[in-house]
Write a structure and sequence with these properties.
Blueprint: H1 2-26, H2 34-41, E1 42-48, H3 55-59, E2 65-69, H4 72-77, E3 83-87, H5 93-108, E4 114-119, E5 122-124, H6 128-139, E6 146-149, E7 159-160, E8 169-173, H7 177-183, H8 191-201, E9 205-208, E10 212-214, H9 220-227
Helix pairs in contact: 2-6, 5-7, 7-8
Length: 240
Amino acid sequence: MLMRRRKRLVVLALLVILATLIYAHASISADPLATQHFNDNFDTIIITKECTRSFDYITSIVPGGSVLTDDYEKCIENQADGWEYHESTVNDEWGYTEKYKRALELCAKSDKAKCLILEDDIVFINSPKSIFSRIKLHTMFGGPQTAWDCSKVGLGWFKTGQTGNKSICRIIDKRTAPCLASEMLRYALPADLALKLAQIACKVDQHRFLLTQHTGFKSYLGAERERDPLWVPAPPKTTA
């Protein structure tokens, strides 16, 4: 009898969650305060080589933030309003891990609570008017020890396993950014794998929801291998 009652309660709870999700997604574009919520609480950092690929598309939607670029001079030729530019040159895949560490350091210095870190080869899956509502919905229950992979299907309220695949869209809490930055070069790994281990070391819980998709533009690694099929990156620097 007790087991049957528990099963009914579980089913009822699941139905309530399902109804909440259906309602939330149906009304996701109806939150007029979502953009202001984003501006008040989120800093955006775009990681780019020379402000090409989807850079103009991203800056036409996101209100402003920081740009981490290999080519500072080229980027400021067509400087986007509301964006602050920083130079961080990448020579290989391991250098990109250092660049991601720099993005985390910028996040740690932000005056906002959280940072949306985007690579420049993404496209948002929703219309511009609903992007910030989606971010608000999926991150509303996160604390300082919560990070989101916003390139994978999921509900941002729930903890998932750590993902070391893709770093194209991540949301990091400013308070854990210093710890994550300090761990990034410890493992001598590509950025996405290093970030996974950094989150484990810093006791940051992984959540996920789908906000972006990869555009398919070539990465540095892919471009080098197309030029020379036998190319391999130089051994990474290690830290004590």
